[in-house]
Design goal:
With 84 residues, the protein is an alpha+beta fold. It is built from three helices and four strands; from the N terminus they run βαββαβα. Helices cover 30% and strands 12% of the residues. Strand 2 and strand 3 form a beta hairpin.
């Protein structure tokens, strides 16, 4: 499942800098995660990089956007192909 940033976000920019798929962007007033680009870092890191660097723990699973590991891997592969 993709991740979502809740209203606890302090817009510190830590998560955006760590996202390998460029899924996090600045919103008004808090940051947001593009569910079409979020792969939860499957195949890149052991856990989502954004969660590990968030100082206020405001990044949580998006219950409205549930994806299996296979779906996340498929998305990651296609994003990688786009970059080439």
């Amino acid at each position: 499942m993709a991740l979502i940033i809740n209203d606890e976000c302090i817009a510190c920019d830590a998560c955006r800098e760590e996202c390998p798929t460029i899924a996090i962007d600045e919103g008004d007033p808090i940051y947001y995660i593009d569910p079409d680009r979020c792969t939860e870092c499957v195949g890149i890191y052991d856990e989502p990089a954004c969660i590990s660097v968030c100082p206020v723990d405001c990044i949580v699973p998006d219950k409205d956007n549930v994806e299996s590991i296979a779906e996340l891997q498929f998305k990651a592969k296609h994003l990688e192909m786009e970059e080439q």
